[in-house]
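Page 42, continued from yesterday. The earlier attempt failed because a stray header line got pasted into the input along with the sequence. Redoing it now with the clean sequence only.
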Amino acid sequence: MVRDREDLPEPGLYSVCYVNAFQTQPGEREDWTGERAELLLRDSSGTPVADPDWPDEVLLDVSTPAKREALIAIVASWIAGCADSGFAAVEADNLDSATRSQGLLSDSDTAAFAADLIEEAHRNGLALGQKNAAERAPELRGLGFDFAITEECEAFDECDAYTGVYGDRVYEVEYTDAPEAVFERACAARGDRIGVLQRDRDLLVPGEDGFVSRQC
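This time it went through. C-alpha coordinates are written below.
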Protein backbone atom coordinates (compact mmCIF):
# COMPACT_ATOMS: atom_id res chain seq x y z
CA MET A 1 0.00 0.00 0.00
CA VAL A 2 1.46 3.34 -1.09
CA ARG A 3 0.96 6.40 1.09
CA ASP A 4 2.36 9.93 0.80
CA ARG A 5 5.37 10.67 3.00
CA GLU A 6 3.25 13.03 5.10
CA ASP A 7 0.71 10.28 5.85
CA LEU A 8 0.96 7.28 8.14
CA PRO A 9 1.42 3.71 6.87
CA GLU A 10 -1.56 1.38 6.66
CA PRO A 11 -1.56 -0.92 9.72
CA GLY A 12 -0.95 -4.57 8.94
CA LEU A 13 0.09 -3.97 5.32
CA TYR A 14 3.44 -3.65 3.55
CA SER A 15 3.39 0.13 3.28
CA VAL A 16 5.44 2.11 0.78
CA CYS A 17 6.23 5.78 1.36
CA TYR A 18 5.73 8.00 -1.71
CA VAL A 19 8.51 10.55 -2.24
CA ASN A 20 8.58 12.88 -5.25
CA ALA A 21 12.36 12.69 -5.44
CA PHE A 22 13.04 14.37 -8.79
CA GLN A 23 10.33 17.06 -8.98
CA THR A 24 8.56 19.43 -6.62
CA GLN A 25 5.21 18.40 -5.17
CA PRO A 26 2.08 20.27 -6.30
CA GLY A 27 1.34 23.09 -3.89
CA GLU A 28 4.83 23.07 -2.38
CA ARG A 29 6.59 25.66 -4.57
CA GLU A 30 6.85 27.95 -1.54
CA ASP A 31 9.22 25.38 -0.03
CA TRP A 32 11.67 26.03 -2.88
CA THR A 33 12.50 29.69 -2.32
CA GLY A 34 15.67 31.37 -1.06
CA GLU A 35 18.72 29.12 -1.37
CA ARG A 36 16.54 26.20 -2.42
CA ALA A 37 15.44 28.13 -5.52
CA GLU A 38 18.90 27.44 -6.98
CA LEU A 39 18.09 23.72 -6.92
CA LEU A 40 15.26 24.03 -9.44
CA LEU A 41 16.09 23.21 -13.05
CA ARG A 42 15.97 26.34 -15.21
CA ASP A 43 16.11 26.95 -18.94
CA SER A 44 18.41 29.45 -20.65
CA SER A 45 16.07 32.32 -19.74
CA GLY A 46 16.10 31.38 -16.07
CA THR A 47 12.55 30.04 -16.10
CA PRO A 48 11.97 26.91 -14.00
CA VAL A 49 11.37 23.83 -16.16
CA ALA A 50 7.95 22.37 -15.38
CA ASP A 51 6.60 18.91 -16.12
CA PRO A 52 4.34 19.46 -19.16
CA ASP A 53 1.81 16.95 -17.85
CA TRP A 54 1.93 18.30 -14.29
CA PRO A 55 2.69 22.02 -14.75
CA ASP A 56 2.67 22.72 -11.02
CA GLU A 57 5.62 20.34 -10.62
CA VAL A 58 9.08 21.74 -11.39
CA LEU A 59 12.05 19.50 -12.12
CA LEU A 60 14.87 19.41 -9.57
CA ASP A 61 18.34 20.15 -10.92
CA VAL A 62 20.41 17.00 -10.39
CA SER A 63 22.94 17.94 -13.07
CA THR A 64 25.99 18.55 -10.86
CA PRO A 65 27.55 16.84 -7.82
CA ALA A 66 27.12 20.01 -5.75
CA LYS A 67 23.41 20.28 -6.50
CA ARG A 68 22.87 16.57 -5.92
CA GLU A 69 24.61 16.90 -2.55
CA ALA A 70 22.33 19.78 -1.58
CA LEU A 71 19.23 17.95 -2.79
CA ILE A 72 20.00 14.66 -1.07
CA ALA A 73 20.37 16.56 2.20
CA ILE A 74 16.74 17.62 1.77
CA VAL A 75 15.34 14.34 0.49
CA ALA A 76 17.25 12.35 3.12
CA SER A 77 15.14 14.00 5.81
CA TRP A 78 11.99 12.86 4.00
CA ILE A 79 13.29 9.29 3.78
CA ALA A 80 14.22 9.30 7.46
CA GLY A 81 10.70 10.53 8.18
CA CYS A 82 9.28 7.57 6.26
CA ALA A 83 11.31 5.22 8.44
CA ASP A 84 10.28 7.00 11.64
CA SER A 85 6.62 6.70 10.62
CA GLY A 86 6.95 2.94 10.23
CA PHE A 87 7.00 2.49 6.47
CA ALA A 88 8.80 -0.55 5.03
CA ALA A 89 9.91 0.98 1.74
CA VAL A 90 10.14 4.14 -0.35
CA GLU A 91 8.83 4.82 -3.85
CA ALA A 92 11.00 7.45 -5.56
CA ASP A 93 8.84 9.05 -8.24
CA ASN A 94 9.83 10.80 -11.48
CA LEU A 95 13.07 8.95 -12.06
CA ASP A 96 12.42 9.64 -15.75
CA SER A 97 12.56 13.43 -15.30
CA ALA A 98 15.41 13.73 -17.83
CA THR A 99 12.90 12.96 -20.59
CA ARG A 100 11.05 16.17 -19.66
CA SER A 101 14.11 18.35 -19.00
CA GLN A 102 14.44 19.96 -22.46
CA GLY A 103 17.79 18.21 -22.78
CA LEU A 104 19.19 19.80 -19.62
CA LEU A 105 19.44 16.53 -17.67
CA SER A 106 20.86 13.17 -18.71
CA ASP A 107 20.19 9.62 -17.60
CA SER A 108 23.60 9.63 -15.94
CA ASP A 109 22.51 12.64 -13.85
CA THR A 110 19.38 10.90 -12.63
CA ALA A 111 21.29 7.65 -12.05
CA ALA A 112 23.81 9.47 -9.87
CA PHE A 113 21.03 10.94 -7.75
CA ALA A 114 19.26 7.58 -7.66
CA ALA A 115 22.42 6.06 -6.17
CA ASP A 116 22.25 8.68 -3.40
CA LEU A 117 18.60 7.80 -2.77
CA ILE A 118 19.42 4.10 -2.56
CA GLU A 119 22.15 4.77 -0.01
CA GLU A 120 19.82 6.86 2.16
CA ALA A 121 16.95 4.38 1.97
CA HIS A 122 19.15 1.46 2.91
CA ARG A 123 20.81 3.50 5.68
CA ASN A 124 17.33 3.89 7.17
CA GLY A 125 16.47 0.20 6.78
CA LEU A 126 14.05 0.79 3.91
CA ALA A 127 13.76 -0.88 0.52
CA LEU A 128 13.70 1.47 -2.47
CA GLY A 129 11.39 0.95 -5.43
CA GLN A 130 11.98 1.93 -9.05
CA LYS A 131 9.13 3.97 -10.54
CA ASN A 132 9.09 4.78 -14.27
CA ALA A 133 11.90 4.27 -16.83
CA ALA A 134 11.13 0.65 -17.69
CA GLU A 135 13.88 0.56 -20.32
CA ARG A 136 16.46 1.32 -17.63
CA ALA A 137 15.43 -1.49 -15.27
CA PRO A 138 18.65 -3.57 -15.66
CA GLU A 139 20.84 -0.52 -14.99
CA LEU A 140 18.76 0.63 -12.02
CA ARG A 141 18.50 -2.83 -10.47
CA GLY A 142 22.29 -2.94 -10.72
CA LEU A 143 22.49 0.34 -8.81
CA GLY A 144 20.62 -1.26 -5.93
CA PHE A 145 16.88 -0.70 -6.39
CA ASP A 146 15.03 -3.46 -4.53
CA PHE A 147 11.70 -3.68 -6.36
CA ALA A 148 9.60 -1.89 -8.96
CA ILE A 149 6.26 -0.11 -8.89
CA THR A 150 4.79 0.10 -12.37
CA GLU A 151 2.00 2.29 -13.68
CA GLU A 152 0.07 0.98 -16.67
CA CYS A 153 2.72 -1.51 -17.75
CA GLU A 154 -0.01 -3.69 -19.26
CA ALA A 155 -1.48 -0.75 -21.13
CA PHE A 156 1.95 0.22 -22.51
CA ASP A 157 3.37 -3.31 -22.92
CA GLU A 158 6.22 -2.73 -20.45
CA CYS A 159 5.60 -5.38 -17.80
CA ASP A 160 8.19 -7.87 -19.03
CA ALA A 161 10.86 -5.17 -18.76
CA TYR A 162 10.22 -5.07 -15.02
CA THR A 163 9.51 -8.71 -14.22
CA GLY A 164 12.48 -9.82 -16.30
CA VAL A 165 14.74 -7.91 -13.91
CA TYR A 166 12.89 -7.87 -10.58
CA GLY A 167 11.05 -11.20 -10.82
CA ASP A 168 8.06 -11.22 -8.50
CA ARG A 169 9.21 -8.06 -6.71
CA VAL A 170 6.98 -5.94 -8.94
CA TYR A 171 3.82 -4.08 -7.93
CA GLU A 172 1.61 -3.24 -10.89
CA VAL A 173 -1.01 -0.49 -10.97
CA GLU A 174 -3.54 -0.15 -13.78
CA TYR A 175 -6.16 2.61 -13.88
CA THR A 176 -9.91 2.67 -14.25
CA ASP A 177 -9.85 5.14 -17.16
CA ALA A 178 -8.33 2.39 -19.31
CA PRO A 179 -10.60 -0.27 -20.80
CA GLU A 180 -11.55 -2.94 -18.26
CA ALA A 181 -9.91 -5.50 -20.54
CA VAL A 182 -6.50 -4.05 -19.62
CA PHE A 183 -6.92 -4.96 -15.95
CA GLU A 184 -8.35 -8.36 -16.90
CA ARG A 185 -5.34 -9.12 -19.11
CA ALA A 186 -2.94 -8.05 -16.38
CA CYS A 187 -4.62 -10.34 -13.87
CA ALA A 188 -4.60 -13.26 -16.29
CA ALA A 189 -0.94 -12.76 -17.18
CA ARG A 190 0.61 -12.00 -13.79
CA GLY A 191 -2.03 -11.88 -11.05
CA ASP A 192 -0.87 -15.16 -9.54
CA ARG A 193 2.79 -14.00 -9.35
CA ILE A 194 2.83 -10.30 -8.49
CA GLY A 195 0.51 -7.77 -6.91
CA VAL A 196 -1.77 -6.26 -9.57
CA LEU A 197 -3.98 -3.39 -8.47
CA GLN A 198 -6.61 -1.32 -10.24
CA ARG A 199 -6.96 2.28 -8.97
CA ASP A 200 -8.85 5.41 -9.84
CA ARG A 201 -6.64 7.90 -11.68
CA ASP A 202 -6.86 10.54 -8.94
CA LEU A 203 -5.76 8.05 -6.25
CA LEU A 204 -8.66 8.98 -4.01
CA VAL A 205 -8.89 7.72 -0.45
CA PRO A 206 -11.64 5.45 0.92
CA GLY A 207 -14.85 7.39 1.42
CA GLU A 208 -14.26 9.81 -1.45
CA ASP A 209 -16.61 9.60 -4.40
CA GLY A 210 -14.96 7.68 -7.21
CA PHE A 211 -12.49 5.76 -5.03
CA VAL A 212 -11.54 2.41 -6.59
CA SER A 213 -9.01 -0.10 -5.30
CA ARG A 214 -9.27 -3.65 -6.66
CA GLN A 215 -6.82 -6.53 -6.68
CA CYS A 216 -6.90 -9.60 -8.88
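Notes: The chain has a mean pLDDT of 93.
Reminder to self: strip header lines before submitting.
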